[in-house]
Amino acid sequence: MIKFIEAKKNYIMALAVFFVIVSLSGTTYSLFIKTDTTDKFDYTTGLLDLAFTEDTPLTLNETFPVVDSVGSSSTPYTLTIKNTGNLTYRFDLKMLTTNNESIIDNKYIKVKVNDNLPHTLFTTNNVIVSNEIIRPGEELTYKINIWLDSSTPNAELGKNFTAKIVSSGTAIYKTLDTSGANTPKTTSNMIPVYYDGSASAWRIADKNNLIETHRWYDYTSSIWANAITVKDSPKQIYDLTGNNNIILDNPTIDNNNLVIEDSPLDIGLSNYNYNQMSTILRVKINEMTNNVSFITNDKINYYYDSSSKSFIFKNGTTIVSSNRYELMPDTWYIIGYTYDSKEVNFYVNGSLLSTSSISGTINSSNTFTIGNLSKITLGDLYIYNIVLSPDSINSNYKTSITPIYDNLLSGYNEFTPMTIKEYYLSHPAGTTIKTNDILAYYVWIPRYKYKLWNSTGTENFAYDALNTGIDIIFEHDKESSGVITCIDNECYSDALHITKITSNDNLKYYTHPAFTSNEELTGFWVSKYELTNNLTSLPNSEVSRNTSLSSFYNSIKTLGDNYHMIKNTEWASIAYLTYSKYGICKNTKCTVMSQNNTFISGSNDKDTTTANIYGVYDMAGSATEFTLSNYTDKLNELSLTNNSFNALPTRSEYNLYYKDTFLLGDGTKELNLDTTNSWLSETNNWLTRGGLANQTNQSIFTYNATTDSSSPYISTRITIK
Fold first, then answer.
1. Pick from 320, 416, 447, 571: CA 20 to 30 A from residue 297's CA?
2. Number of helices (H) and strands (E), helices first, in the chain?
3. What is the DSSP string of 258-269?
4. Average pLDDT per 10 consecutive residues for the chain, totaling 721 residues
5. What are phi and psi of 548, to 5 degrees?
6. Three-class secondary structure of residue 105 per DSSP
């Protein structure tokens, strides 16, 4: 159960933004924005401590009403919020307008926050950020663009707009995860997901991890946080069925509604034979012509005759009309029809207008189009292969719209063109992720410390780590709470780095070096599956092999600076977490991690670090894997026998084994495994990890030394910091 502290409070940043519109000539406008900047604004009470900082003032001078692409690229106003207290806080940010009788209508004030899609203040009731979660020690920054929409009419001349950014929210004790693991930090192109077993589908997770039905993670239950990246795509209008997405060049969009003028909208649906059909549109007529066409193909035409003031339905050469109903221009209506091969029912705003007899199936070969020779604005469109009942139409398509998804052939409830990434980032938790849209899956490995069992790599275990489980405690933020510290492969039992560790330091805690070497991390992402073709990480795909280590590295770096090939300490941190109560060890007993005996990724959900779908796959089987871990006789310098790197890795991206030193936490000598594992040398100076398909006695802790050369048995995987 989620518990809340009643500590609700409004925080006013004292941002005052004044908009003055000046008529230059005809329909030309000028927008002036003035900001009253303030110093740091703080609120502190008990365990809750929030700091609001305005980093840069918003400065727009003599700005005209502009299209979204221009408004989005303007210099943003920057607001930073930091939680320096001990409680998690959930909050909204709202642009609160002042009371002014001559204020600009908020449906013409456009706002864009960070990478989110632009919207009018009207559509969100002036809320610009909703249900954000900020945890202790976390800092959130918001880049806020604000402009006057290009559709602003002359009626807004001479008005002004004044607003303050206001925050309100509630402190929270905890999320659905009870482990204490650091909150996953996604990159801008990552989407948090959970698996819906009943539908065999991945869906968008609740990023705040507060909604049980959309739970993102719970490490206590071996549900590790998963996220995906999606493919690049052109901007398109998304069909609710996913079958008839529309790509348009420079469409005219009015508050997520599509303005159709000279060129009709093609929505596909060709070569359908309809015995029954229903079509519902939310539409506004911009220019009343003799015939206002709504939906047309080679067989049917549904339109409004402004002369007879009636709706017309045409099937082939047969034409029937509705009772008289006068449509007014610039007024929204919900109109539609149902057809059962015998009669057509005409509807307006959820009510049956009239019924006419007409027979014949609809055997269409051409696609359907909307708005032939009409100037209309389309807000919603739904086409069904059944006859909707009068009750269902009245309930769902009257004054407000609640779409019916059963038997939906094609449906559109927003007409803002979006890329695949924008589409998913703008949709709520529970939205299904189409498999074909996914580029790669990733799993979050949170920062932790573990209890040493073999501090020098030579003794008997102080406790049976691999059979009863490694003792792991998650750490908060970038805190290192372990007693043991290490520098350049030398480890000490004191903070001053004077006393080197001995066997007497077993059972003390050490922050795993994957989170501390060269930079402090709250955690990192690792590809869920071994690398598959074209830098993907996908299930049921051929594992990418026959590539040299340096070539793998070069390819991975094209994804971005925060992407790199997995290094050995990162591999070991995943392996240690696997052999803990958060992975495959329960009630002081560890199960044997199963092994994929093919080179097809993700063949079995049991071949994971959690023995379920939420873990990392195939670390004990499939291909063995390159790690960016190098043997060297040159202090702090890579030893390269074959330098094919486009650019040398940065120091934080690799592990160095200087003259065969022992590296605590790397999952090799600390384990005292059998001697069949080959160790690094001057010749074989790169380390591979993981078992190999069809090889006995292979495990997640298997290691071998190799060269940089390609092999049909070696792959790798990606980590993101």
1. 416
2. 6, 47
3. EEE-SSPEEEE-
4. 30 34 28 33 41 48 72 83 76 73 80 87 85 80 86 75 72 80 91 96 93 96 98 92 87 90 87 86 90 90 94 93 95 96 96 94 83 89 96 93 92 92 91 94 98 88 93 92 86 88 94 92 97 96 97 96 96 98 95 90 91 96 96 87 89 89 90 75 94 86 94 97 89
5. -70, 160
6. coil
How would you class 250 by CB atoms within 10 Å of its CB: exposed for 0-12, middle for 13-18, buried for 19 or more? exposed
C-alpha distances in Å from residue 387, one per residue of 269, 274, 362, 703: 17, 11, 14, 64
DSSP per-residue codes, 329-391: TT-EEEEEEEE-SSEEEEEETTEEEEEEE----EEE-SPEEE-TT-EEEEEEEEEESS---HH
DSSP state of 85: S
Position 31, amino acid: L
Decide if 338 contacts 387 (C-beta within 8 A): yes
Residues 443 and 194: their CA atoms lie apart, in Å, by 11
Q: Cβ(554)–Cβ(645) under 8 Å?
A: yes
Distances (CA, A) of 329 to 287, 296, 306: 7, 21, 11
Domain boundaries, the chain: 4-172, 190-233+424-442, 252-418
* CATH code given to domain 252-418: 2.60.120.200
Q: List, in sequence order, every beta strand (DSSP E) within 452-550.
A: 472-474, 485-487, 490-492, 509-511, 523-527
Pairing state between β 160-172 and 332-339: unpaired
Q: What is the dihedral of CA 670, 220, 619, 568, to 10 degrees?
A: -40
Is there a contact between 652 and 519 (Cβ–Cβ < 8 Å)? yes
C-alpha separations of 408 from 69, 96, 238, 460 in Å: 33, 40, 14, 65
Strands (E), 543-640: 563-565, 585-586, 589-590, 624-632
Q: If 0-12 CB within 10 Å is exposed, 13-18 middle and 19+ buried, where does residue 271 land?
A: exposed
Q: What are phi and psi of 83, to 5 degrees?
A: -100, 105
Tokens of residue 701, six digits: 């802790």
CA distance to 521, 582, 584, 602, 618, per residue, from 575 (Å): 18, 11, 10, 17, 12
Cα 383 to chain centroid distance, Å, stands at 29
Both structure tokens of 162: 């004044």
CATH number for the domain running over 4-172: 2.60.40
What is the SS3 string spanning 6-40? EEEEEEECCCCEEEEEEECCCCCEEEEEEECCCCC
Quick check: 368 and 268 in contact, CB under 8 A? yes
Bridge partners for 590 per DSSP:
585
3-class DSSP assignment, residue 19 = strand
Tell whether pTM > 0.90. Answer: no
Residue with tokens 């979660």: 133
Are 443 and 528 within 8 A, CB to CB?
A: yes
Which one, of 233, 234, 295, lies nearest residue 260 by Cα?
Answer: 295
CA distances from 291 to 177, 352, 529, 635 (A): 59, 22, 57, 82
216, 212, 219: which is closest to 195 by C-alpha?
Answer: 216
DSSP state of 584: T
Element (H, E) at 420: helix 420-425
- CA–CA distance, 192 with 424 (Å, rounded to integer): 10
- Of the candidates 64, 57, 11, the one whose C-alpha atom is nearest the C-alpha of residue 38 is 57
- Both tokens of residue 44? 């502190």
Q: How far is CA 364 from CA 268, 272, 373, in A?
A: 11, 6, 20
Contact 100/47 with Cβ under 8 angstroms? no
Rounded-to-integer distance, Cα 365 and Cα 383, Å = 16
Beta bridge partners of 134: 89
Q: d(Cα 619, Cα 617) in Å, to the nearest integer?
A: 6
User: First CA to last CA across the chain, in angstroms?
Assistant: 32
